[in-house]
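Holo prediction — flavin-adenine dinucleotide.
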Amino acid sequence: MKVSIASPSVELMAMTENAAALITKAGRVCYKSESHATNATAGEFVRKLMTAGHLSVIEHAVATLKFVTDRGVSHELVRHRIMSISQESTRYVNYDRRGLLQFVLPDDITDAAKDIMIAQAESAAAAYSQLVGAGVKAEVARDVLPTFTKTELVVTANFREWLHIIRLRTAKQAHPKIRRLITMAKKILVNKCPEVFDAELV
Ligand SMILES: Cc1cc2nc3c(=O)[nH]c(=O)nc-3n(C[C@H](O)[C@H](O)[C@H](O)COP(=O)(O)OP(=O)(O)OC[C@H]3O[C@@H](n4cnc5c(N)ncnc54)[C@H](O)[C@@H]3O)c2cc1C
């Protein structure tokens, strides 16, 4: 059985509008310096908060990201607790009937190793199909699916939690697949709010 390979991806679904301005407004309440707030100085104020480690203020801003990855990586991502998550269900989705079964290969392995993984995926897909064909429910047939089965999840977290995830999951010690995924997420977030996501932290 020929299987389909998915590419990991990250998409920004939603984000606090004008996050730097909101963080500035909230932060200035602490110092009663609201009258000094201007759009031009918002970035500078947020950078000062970041340098001071006054990170509770950035919790006022949130971002929702959609990830395409594999079950192994998603298991690592959902270990983070200060977030809301909606994930594709292997209980309710019948991959056989809907043709949704895909796999995510690692980048950093040889072609020979990839061939071994594809053969494993083909075998799992065939077993899944046979089980479903024999009347077994998707929630039971899923047991034959490997860790590198594709999954999709939508994650909403505040900026402080995203910052924490980025720091942990882009570090050298992180698994290469989650490092690649969260590096993509970081690029999106840096582009949208560099004051927070590109900050030099103490
Ligand atoms: C390189 C690496 C290897 C790992 N290896 C393993 C492993 O072998 N086995 C394993 O089980 N896990 C492993 N993990 C997962 C890890 O233990 C954490 O579960 C995961 O990284 C979530 O991060 P977190 O606990 O910092 O915080 P999050 O859940 O993201 O929370 C953010 C922060 O909030 C605070 N916080 C949240 N909940 C609490 C609480 N209940 N009490 C006090 N403070 C809280 C903490 O300051 C925490 O850092 C690994 C993670 C990494 C990055």
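READOUT: The beta strands are 4-5, 9-15, 62-70, 83-87, 102-103, 150-158.
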